[in-house]
Amino acid sequence: MMEQSDVIRNSPDVMQRISMNMDKLTKSQQRVADYIQNHTMEAAFSTVDRTAHAVDVSTTTVVRLALSLGYSGYAEMQSALKDYMTVMSSPIHMFSIVTRSEEDAGRAADYTSLMELEIQNIQETCSAIVTETVNKAADALSNARSIFVIGARTSEAPARYFAYNLDRMFLNTQYVFADTNHVPELVNRMGKEDVLIYIVNSRYLRSVYEATRAAKLTGATVIGLIDAVSNTWIPFTDYTFYCANRSANFFHSPVSAMFIANVLMKQCVNTNRERVESNLKKLEESVQSLKLFLKN
């Protein structure tokens, strides 16, 4: 017969371990467990000190919870949380969660629930904005020799949107296709006078990570729009912007990333009005001469 500790250790994921053992935890440990269940993203990427502070318990309590759940310590439990978040991010799993929730509610969620969720995402993203970081990132963009924007999958739309509009403003921006085969060419072009913007949304692509790491090694300035302040990216990022991405769909929302792109571009316009105006005037002259648009 398996011992209780073996049952815990062999359970599928960290959330199931918490559910199986909630009644056996101390009240303080239950508070930490509740926090992990309700703030999984934060717990997955926070230090033990920050998690303890968020729940108003001692770090010892957090560590003891990890031990009670069958982990060797907080680091192993946090690693399990990150694995859990990766699984939760798969489209099929998100689809299953959404449809199951709708079935439980007896109806499919209408568009108003989506609107409310996106508003919450924007509000949460706004609360995390640091004005100084916005100003410094905008200065880096304004003074860059070249700007490169990389993103793929659910991050491709905001990445292309950001690159397209920055290029209209500064005439020096390009979208980078997130393919590992393109990383050497990207790195070969970059230097300390350049800026790389990466946008990631949950399941992190290795190619984007490698491009970001390599860009930083060239001395380029790196700006990150990311769904969590992850230790994976912090060493290679000069300016980080958190983008809440909760969704009632089978994919994570890109709306907050688009919002942060707008914030940064607006600040760039504020400090480069004449330059941007001049470039837009030249662009409009070309558009008119080429008769690009149909007349109404």
Structure in words:
With 296 residues, the chain is an alpha/beta fold. Helices cover 60% and strands 8% of the residues. The chain is built from 15 helices and five strands.
Coarse structural class: alpha/beta
Outline:
elongated
Q: How many distinct helices?
A: 15
Topology pattern, helix = H, strand = E: HHHHHHHHHHEHEHEHEEHH
Distance linking N and C termini: 78 Å
Main sheet makeup: 5 strands, parallel
Low-confidence stretches at least 5 residues in length (pLDDT < 50)? 1-12
Query: What is the helical fraction, as a range of percent?
Result: 55-70%
- Strands in their spatial order, largest beta sheet: 2-1-3-4-5
- Secondary structure tally: strands: 5
What Rg is obtained from the alpha carbons, in whole angstroms? 22 Å
Question: Which range does the strand content fall in?
Answer: 5-15%
Mean pLDDT: 84
Task: For the structure shown, list the relevant keywords.
296 residues; alpha/beta; five-stranded parallel sheet; 5 strands; 8% strand; elongated
